[in-house]
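Box 3.1. Reading complex inputs
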Amino acid sequence: MDLIEKDALTLGRLIARREVSASEVVEAYLNRIEKVESMLHAFINLSGDLARRLAAEIDEKISRGENAGEFAGVPIAIKDVLSTKNFPTTCASRMLENFVPVYDATAVEKVLSAGCVMLGKTNMDEFAMGSSTENSYFGVTRNPWDTDRVPGGSSGGSAAAVAAREVPWALGSDTGGSIRQPAALCGIVGMKPTYGLVSRYGLVAFASSLDQVGPMTLNVSDCAALLGLIAGHDPLDSTSIPDEPEDYLSELNGEIRGLKAAVVKELSGEGIDPDVLRCFNEALDTLDACGVSIEEVSLSSFEYALSAYYIIAPAEASSNLARFDGVRYGFRTDHECDDVWEMYDRTRSEGFGGEVKRRIMLGTYALSAGYYEAYYAQAQKIRTLIINDYRKAWEKFDVLLSPTSPTTAFRIGEKIDDPLTMYLSDVCTIPVNLAGIPAISVPCGLSEGLPVGLQIMGPPLKELRILNVAYALEQSLNLNMRPPI
Amino acid sequence: MEFETIIGLEIHAELSTKSKMFCGCSTEFGGEPNTRTCPVCLGHPGTLPVANRKAIEYTILLGLALNCEIARRSLFHRKNYFYPDMPKNYQISQYDIPLSKNGFLEIDMGDYKRKVGITRVHLEEDTGKSIHVGESGRIHGAGRSLEDFNRAGIPLVEIVTEPDLRTPEEARNFMIELRAMLEYLGISDCKMEEGSLRCDANISIAVDGVQGTKVEIKNMNSFRALQRALSFEEKRQKEIIIGGGKIPQETRHWDEAAGVTHTLRMKEEAFDYRYFPEPDLVPLEPDPQIVEELQKSLPETPGQRLDRFIRKYGLPKDTARVLVYDKKLGDFYEEAVAKGGNPVAIAKWLAGDFVGLLNEFSIKVENSPIGPHGISELILLVERGVISGRMAKDVLKEAFQSGESPAQIVSRKGLSQIADSEEIALIVERVVDDNPQAVRDFLEGKEQALKFLMGQVMKLSRGKANPTMASEKLRELLEKRQ
């Protein structure tokens, strides 16, 4: 039995039925990591020994007939932006290279208490700022489909790890597309839930009003299962939604006949690679065949989404990242300093990478006296327009569609020196974060041997609906995409 | 040139909630440094604030007591600046939509009253505490700095007044009034020495009705310091104006030991705090029903109590003020009155000897060895003529030292006064016989001599003679001699 070809749900069932032990599963994945990790660099820190110990404990529990959790023994990878108790959490930054948190993020706690076994913390763009995972202090992650190419970002490590079967599933975080875009570029499923559905407690903040934790999986059923594990109210997060979440997995049936969908004109024309569009349009035909009516809708405010995002996200980041100052934890300059101000300057200059510093500067500027109204306040108005455009669209349509990314995976180094071109990688995913709505990226084919993702957006808390559309599409396309690695 | 001093205050008071503003840590003062902390108030990566419901209620309560409008929707903002005692390098505070605004507080200056406008009352979190090791005692030039985050995150209300105060005395009285208000609401410990009540001031001099330049003064650690600093600054600014100089807009630091202010930073060095709405918290929308309930639950204010003490008990205003502006003393007074005794006499004793002894022994009212019951007992002993006022003074002091009740002391020491008219007559006769010169003086019209003779009576009776009876007997006898 080739365990690493199974999805997480299957692995969970096999372990629960004692057809295979947790230790065997964990060992199989650690072997896989051993084999491919040097080519990919999907992880920043691996927790193999810890995982083996945990798996042994789980096996013992199971042998005693005890409940070891719904997903006991199923390996998982955690993006290194989520706090893990007693295990380094670096955010791919020199600033936190040796930082070991004293608490688990709520999402982490939930997957661990369901019995998942963490195999390691995955690589990412520093503090989740980037679209290629090239902005990691620890070096780039490579795309399993073509190791000369980026996996996307910022959750590139999680995406590559799942695509390469180093783990069956992983947690990521999405501020402007950081789950969906790498999922698309690596040919896996990735979802950004409704803002507030998953607790942000323990997610090291990039842009607090946009950040969400979400699942990155091999297929849609796993996505539904992992979302079910992490969703729900958390009293430690004031922005967490109090409602009881839906039961995503048990109601996942692919019944979408009669649904009304629309393609967002602004996200599926200009600037989108023609071959990506070809793939996307073929997938639309499939959906049409599933009984979904497909129209086109123009949401004119989207034209300004990218600009608004690059004001709001850096503004919040400039404040969120102020705590990394060398006073209480994390990196501090070795340089002899005259006073605390020099210590701040040197610590932050040496501890942060280029893109992080760029965004801190952008955000600080946008919030400065005399510029606030012209930048931050204007950006918030655009945000309101985008929310309103979506709201109007939901009056007519059940879901909205677009390609997830305007291109397939690009070459390492191709865009890193051109931030504006790099920022365009998230043009299709950003409006979703600004509006706080849920969206999923699901593989819809290959373009010149590289995966293409289709984005399905839905109204707030309609995760089940978009999961069902994704599920129906996945079943009908039956792509069985597998990276060459 | 006609000068007018214009003063406005900015006050910070720590709220006496059990837990901190955004986490569950204890707010108790003191403790080993950095023991009352958690990942949230230390600003660990990934942590989030959860607002303290009680602190919000307290702030609304204060807003209501200060006659403010309560916002239907209020926001927390982030105030961004780097300082090592601030774990996140931003303070969660309020900016353009505070919880309450547009109120007033009236102060009594004896011969006039002043209504002082309250611009706003808002809620924020306190910072930690820095100890700078080095000559300057300040962060600039410090060899190293030690940080204690026990205080970081304690809920803090900020109260900003309109520039309605006109003298340093008014500023001081405003603080007394406000502190009493906080005490009466039971929402703050108001200990300036522990830093739970802090005050900054803005002062400018208007010349012939033309507004002057505002100077901010910081670091005043007592009401007396506030008044001194403002007096110094008032004089300094007037001298500059008279000398033809200009007042620069700046922040000045009060040096208590030297009794002067000096420049802390100029206007150009002012921070840009880059305020923006705190995305980790949802807007505050106080339930109107709860606000109404809070309004109904407002306790008697110090001003109301002062009026009542004057009206109901017939107290002189000065005495009433002493009792009212120390809430616990006021409570003590009312308890004593309830136990019995003349309310005016009790007030006089409490505001006089009792407060004096508390100070002498450095004891707080609530820890007084003699309770309201004891004070009532003491006053009743005087009223019934068992002891004289003079004896009562000694009994009170004795009670402070031994912790016994006044009645116990009186009986143990056999102190009850001589109220037997025969016995008093004997003493008085002897005094009159022994002091012929004084008697002559009196008969020649020197009233002073009577006082001397009374003194002799008290001396002979070792203070036990009932003064009223003795005085009557003395006159009677002297008149006979005439």
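In summary: The first strand of chain A starts at residue 43 and ends at 46.
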